[in-house]
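Hey,

The postdoc asked me to send both predictions to you directly instead of through the lab channel. I've kept everything plain text so nothing gets mangled by the mail client. Protein one:
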Amino acid sequence: LRVLDVPAALGARSYAGSRAVTVRVEDPLLPRNTATYAIPGDGAETTTAPADLEADITALGAALLGGSRWSDLALAGLVRVHDAAALRAADELFAVPQAPHSGIYF
């Protein structure tokens, strides 16, 4: 998943947790996406607060649909963690009751 409008995508998504997390997203292709976002559980907005987690746009795309956990992305070296508690909170926020699935094969 390639996110073209990070504020819109994060703002439109529903979240499962209640603890706020700040995520710094880097997007070299679309610089307007590069920002730090506060995700409190009921939407998202840009912030100047320090980031709990840092990820590039591809890691955000992997986590956005709920099929990849932030902690798994961190283990793979795709997310830099500044606060371990925030990593657990991000896993909770982005959790989904059923993993995403596509029945179409290319």
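Protein two:
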Amino acid sequence: MARKTHVLLAVQLTVPVVLLYVIFRQIDVGLLCERFKHVRATYFIAGMVGGVISQVFAAAYRWRYMLDRGYSLKLPYGFLLRQYWIGMFLGYFVPAGIGVDAYRIAAVYRRAGRLGANVAVIVVE
């Protein structure tokens, strides 16, 4: 069993590196750098930050809304937002985003119980 685990870990670490290598082989880095010279930094940063932040805030709100409306499970938005951020961070270390969902399920279960309700909301999302 331990050998199988080591092989799986090796595959999980190798596949993203190989895919990134293939992708970056297709990119003309000189042209990319030239294009970035003409981009306004403030617009670029605002777009990147705004895009990520608004997505997280909207996803946490959707999670809260679905828990409340679907299962009358009322949890503070700040708590769910914090758990969403933590779950996203942990999700980077687990393939296929399973870490995000598993953490969110565990966090709500620890706080409010009702495992089935939270699992159902996460699956529907």
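Summary for protein two, as requested: The chain is about 85% helix and 0% strand.

Thanks,
C.
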